[in-house]
Amino acid sequence: MASWQELGPGNFILATAGELLNTGLVLGSERALVIDTGCGPRQAAGILAAVREITPLPLVVVNTHAHYDHFFGNAVFAADGVREFWAHENAARTMAEHGEAQRRMLDSAHEPEMAAADGELAEIVLPTALVKDQPVLLDLGGVVATLFYLGRGHTDGDLLVGTQSTVFSGDLVEQGSHPSFEDSYPAEWADTLRQLSALRHRYEFLAPGHGKSVSDDFVKTMANTMSTAIRMAREAARETPNDATKAIPILPYGPEQSRWFMARLRQTA
Predict the structure, then answer these.
(1) Residue 98 pLDDT class (50, 70, 90 cuts)
(2) How confident is the model at residue 20 (pLDDT cuts 50, 70, 90)?
């Protein structure tokens, strides 16, 4: 388990092994906020232990979206006494409807209990508190964290967390690899990134869902690259309507992600 990196006062990220998930931590005087809990009880136990090295405060959890590597660790935090799990309403619905199916996506060598649904800590613990269209302010004691939704992007339920110094973006922003398009809305994602960029004057740091903290230029480049890919794909579809996949070799993503990109672009057009 990597060590915590402090971004702003009382704002930390922890890059965990494997998926290199960034778990966020925001400290108040009365309670602390944990952002994303990992892909199962083993990873979550490491995250919780790291949290407890920083603070003994009661915890609140936010799941930024409904992909297993961000919420399958909830049961470990519930066992530590957490009762307040926040997510966007769309993400909560997806977790309830498709959470069990996501067990198949796990590496059973790393999370055998979660993959096999073996034991209480392998239960899927769903959000207990929902964010809809309006931001929610969480008072942690002298520190306020704002939970807010800018629109569809990586999924239809990407929740962001903002503090006085930092915005935690979940997988709306990823550093070190191409964006993941499996459940995405590519055209809307580019617009959502631009909305995020427009808010960057409020924050000094941006913590992505995976990878190192990034600048506003990174977010703008990600949005522009996605818009360019959309334009290229649509032009290819007009030129070869029966085989729009011919655009894949020229898209600015790797072949596998480009295939997902094309599939989602057609589905969400």
Answers:
(1) very high
(2) confident
Q: DSSP secondary-structure letter at 73?
A: T
Burial of 204 from C-beta contacts in 10 A (0-12 / 13-18 / 19+):
middle
CATH number for the 5-215 domain, one of 3.30.420.10, 3.40.50.2000, 3.60.15.10, 3.50.50.60?
A: 3.60.15.10
CA distance 138 to 65: 18
Q: What tokens appear for 106 in the block?
A: 């796990």
How far apart CA 240 and CA 249 sit, in angstroms, is 14
Dig out the tokens for 111 from the structure: 């999370």
Q: Helix %, strand %, coil % for the chain, to 5?
A: 40, 25, 35
pTM over the 0.90 mark: yes
Within the chain, residue ranges assigned H as helices are 41-54, 68-71, 74-79, 89-98, 112-116, 186-198, 216-239, 255-268
